[in-house]
Amino acid sequence: MSRGKFIVIEGGEGAGKGECVTFLARVLRDRGKKVITTREPGGSSFAEEIRNLIFSEAARVHHPDPLTQLNLFAAARIEHTIQTIRPALKKGRIVLCDRGFPSTFAYQIAGEDRRDLEPHFRFIDQMSRGATWDPSKNTWSGALVPDLTVFLDVDPEVGLERADRRTTGNHFDEKELAFHRRVRDGYYEILSVVRHVIIDANQPMETVRKEALQLVSAFLRSDA
Ligand code: TYD
């Protein structure tokens, strides 16, 4: 059986990722594809527990350092990679994931303006995506890389207004506008290392969903 496809949907607050993932999964399933949807942080039993901690009242009150956050997101990603994503890909599934490692760079490094953490990010990012250290080559190898990353690029002002209208939210939504602008810049930086497509997510959600479907369908055809 051929390996499945790992597709990550990324974007800042209010970009409409969740909606997009649900829509893509429904249409692809209607076309007979075997799809699983998942998310980060979370996506496996224990990773969801780590998620609860990340968004807990305690985290809101104690403001853990971005280095602590980075490690928690990475810990959740290890579980998610091992327990959920790799097994699904092995079974030939299309894995549609709401957020992935680019979020960690965009939020904890760029958004938080903690460039001093970049070396740590590079190290833990490889490990958290299942890489192993290859002493003969003196390098990491085997990290899980998304086959395609779809970046829903929304203007932070537009996105925050959309997010404001939602009833659910977490304390990451409460950051100032400058933070979200840095997040967007961070995405552009980190996306350069992966195969990706960008959608203007300031457009009405219906248009965004349609474009996402076109791009993902084209990718699946080209990569079949
Ligand atoms: P969530 O409630 O899943 O909603 P949404 O993805 O729609 O914003 O929130 C996830 C939050 O976690 C979001 O504010 C981004 C943040 N995050 C990080 O800061 N680093 C990460 O590595 C990931 C995966 C998410």
Structure explained in plain terms:
With 224 residues, this protein is α/β, with parallel strands linked by helices. Helix 4 (66-90) packs antiparallel against helix 5 (101-111), helix 4 packs parallel to helix 6 and helix 5 (101-111) packs across helix 8. The longest helix has 25 residues, at 66-90. Helix content is 54%, strand content 15%. The protein has a single domain, classed as 3-Layer(aba) Sandwich (Rossmann fold), CATH 3.40.50. The mean pLDDT is 95.
The CATH superfamily is known as: P-loop containing nucleotide triphosphate hydrolases
Hetero compounds: thymidine-5'-diphosphate
Q: What name is given to the CATH topology?
A: Rossmann fold
Strand order of the largest sheet: 2-3-1-6-7
Strand count: 7
What's the tally of helices? 9
Distance between the termini: 13 Å
Q: What is the percent of helical residues?
A: 40-55%
- Integer average pLDDT: 95
What's the gyration radius in Å?
17 Å
Give the DSSP E fraction (strand runs of 2 or more residues).
15-25%
The total number of structural domains is: 1
What's the shape? globular
CATH architectural group: 3-Layer(aba) Sandwich
